[in-house]
Amino acid sequence: MSALNTFTIAEARDKLRAKEVTAVELTQACLTAIEGADALGAYVHKTPDLAMEQAKAADARLASGDAPDMCGIPLGIKDLFCTKGVDSQAASRILQGFKPEYESTVSQNLLDAGTITLGKLNMDEFAMGSSNETSVYGNAVNPWKVDDRQLTPGGSSGGSASAVAADLCLAATGTDTGGSIRQPAAFTGIVGIKPTYGRCSRWGVVAFASSLDQAGPMTKTVRDAAIMLETMAGYDPKDSTSADIPVPNFEAMLTGDIRGKKIGIPKEYRMDGMPAEIEKLWEDGTAKLRDAGAEIVDISLPHTKYALPAYYVIAPAEASSNLARYDGVRFGHRASLAAGDGITEMYEKTRAEGFGPEVQRRIMVGTYVLSAGFYDAYYNRARRVRALIKKDFDDVFAAGVDAILTPATPSAAFGLGEMTDADPVQMYLNDVFTVTVNLAGLPGISVPTGLDSTGLPLGLQLIGRPWEEGDLLNTAYALEQAAGFVAKPQKWW
Amino acid sequence: MSIDTAIAAKVAKLARIRVEEDALPALAEEFNNILGFIEQLNEVNVDGVEPMTSVTPQRLKRRVDVVNDGDQQDKVLKNAPDAREGFFAVPKVVE
Predict the structure, then answer these.
(1) Nearest alpha-carbon partner for A141 in A127, A122, A120
(2) Are A386 and B43 a contacting pair, CB within 8 Å?
(3) Where are the alpha helices (DSSP H) in A133-272?
(4) What is the pLDDT of residues B80-89, one digit of tens each?
(5) Which of A83-87, A224-228, B1-5, B61-65 has the lowest mean pLDDT?
């Protein structure tokens, strides 16, 4: 039997029920792997004692014979999720020492199903970044390596991606505001799905941009994503934007049969200067879906070009409002004050010390675009463009398209530090293929389908109709089967 | 629209983030780069388009206006940097 920490959720579920393994054994295997993987910087708060306690409870529940699919599955949780009594600081200095008195709805849903929390995972500060380099904890590192360079696992869910790819958990939670699940999944050769906006509760997830944020699973296979998403999702009265609609059995929808499905190929995603390897990956994926019986149609999403600029108005605007709560009064860091300092100095010094440069930049850009005289020119215009971007998708789906196939990222993983001196806008371009999906509130999934010439993983993205994650997962499953991606990173850490 | 150091200082003040005087020119330049990128939105014809308020058509649920939570003072104050006698403590606000 292969090492227990390399199991998928589905394998572990079946072996737990066949009594071939126990949750305690699975958990111990993951904890051992985590102990030997500090070089990856994936886990930032480890909870081994809690995990072993939960594992024993899961074994007892499994023995009773009435356990949900996720019972006994060891998971890593992104640091953005508030976890009761466990440090939850969104990779920011301003939340240093913060231990919530409550559990986020999504992580509670998982715990209720009997999952095991191995610890909290690294990320970009407040989920703002595409390389996990803005974290107060330091970088998370990609387990994939092809030369002397250490590579980014992507961001913002970089620790989640690194942990899943390196088998430091069976799966992990992520969150996605502009691509933060799908881009790191693509950089590390794993699967990541951002569900329809409203599918997963945002309650207890540290807010970045509330109209865009969604939680989702990051897993080793599409089947695992289906199993885990079903557990994470569901209506929550504590999140007024969570959807009160039934959550189907997503796994039961994985037939692999996509005959007659209409797959759209958007011409606007064929960017100038797109690497030939990405273009080839996209063509190969298209051919595989066609061979599986799908009908391929060329489509147009005319406002694609304006998605990133609209995002970089809307997301900072919402962030500037959401992050106003970090004022040094109720929780987290407070700067030490000089004699005579008043409350304004307390706010200003606390926020200057507590927020890193990228977070400060986005708060200030958001403040500017919302300020008197610019609100209409920037914020309202961006919201109008957002309506047009959503209409592009509505029109395509109304014409009968079932899913849209695009590249997930414009390149393979790049080296840590390589973008340090670049203009922030260069880093933002990482989200060029993913950000439209957040603006339109749609489900999107990244599936690993190939390696580049140096041996690094590359992923394709499938975009689905709202609330039809089941159909989307099935198309992703067909793509996964056809691509047959099985490569794993060689252990160097 | 070009941002100078005076505007950068004003934005930092509005955002309640202390930015040292010598850091303002670099900050203004960053703002200009990002806003230059955002300017592309001016190419889009948005005549007659309503600004999006909700990405999924939905009506917010209503609930009965009753107290359904409370009596958790200790938990509310637990993570405060400075709490005294059941209150959050801050520097003097009113002279």
Answers:
(1) A122
(2) no
(3) 158-165, 182-188, 222-232
(4) 999 999 999 9
(5) B1-5
User: In which residue are the tokens 């797959």 written?
Assistant: A263
B58 touches chain A (CB under 8 A): yes
Report the candidate in A442, A67, A472, A480 with the shortest Cα–Cα distance to residue A248: A472
Task: Decide if A180 is catalytic.
Answer: yes
Quote the CA–CA distance of A249 and A229 in Å, as a whole number. 10
Nearest CA-CA distance, residue B29 and chain A, Å: 10
Walking along chain A (493 residues) 10 residues at a time, the average pLDDT comes out as: 92 97 98 98 98 98 95 98 98 97 98 98 97 97 97 98 98 98 98 98 98 98 98 96 96 98 97 90 98 98 97 98 97 95 96 97 96 93 98 98 97 93 83 96 98 97 98 98 97 96
| CA dist list (Å): B74 to A205, A421, B71, B83, B86 | 22, 46, 8, 10, 8
Give me the residues of B, 27-46, that contact A with CB < 8 A.
27, 30-31, 33-35, 37-44, 46
Unique residue bearing structure tokens 């913060």: A98
Residue A429: closest CA among A266, A311, A282, A265: A311
Name the one residue in this structure whose structure tokens are 């014409």.
A399
Secondary structure of residue A206 in the 3-state scheme: coil
Q: What DSSP letter does each residue of A305-359 carry, written as one string?
A: GGHHHHHHHHHHHHHHHHGGG-SSSSSS------TT--HHHHHHHHHHHHS-HHH
Using a CB–CB cutoff of 8 Å, tell me whether A312 touches chain B: yes
ipTM, 2 dp: 0.95
Catalytic: which of A107, A135, A157, A180? Answer: A180
Whether residue A310 contacts residue A386, with contact meaning beta carbons closer than 8 Å, is answered with yes
Burial of A147 (0-12, 13-18, 19+ CB in 10 A): exposed
Contact at CB, B18 and A352, closer than 8 angstroms: yes
Sign of CA pseudo-dihedral A176, A179, A180, A184: positive
Residues of B in contact with A346 (CB under 8 A): 90-91
End-to-end CA separation in angstroms for chain A: 23
B47 Cα to chain A: minimum distance (Å): 9
Which chain A residues have a beta carbon less than 8 Å from that of B44?
303, 306, 381, 384-385, 388
Please state, as a whole number, how many other Cβ atoms lie within 10 Å of the Cβ of residue B12: 23
> How buried is B50 (Cβ within 10 angstroms: 0-12 exposed, 13-18 middle, 19+ buried)?
exposed
The amino acid sitting at A456 is: L
Per CB-CB distance under 8 Å, the chain A contacts of B76 are: 330
CB nearest B18 (choices: A348, A378, A423)? A348
* DSSP assignments along A160-190, one per residue: HHHHHHTTSSSEEEEEESSSTTHHHHHHHT-
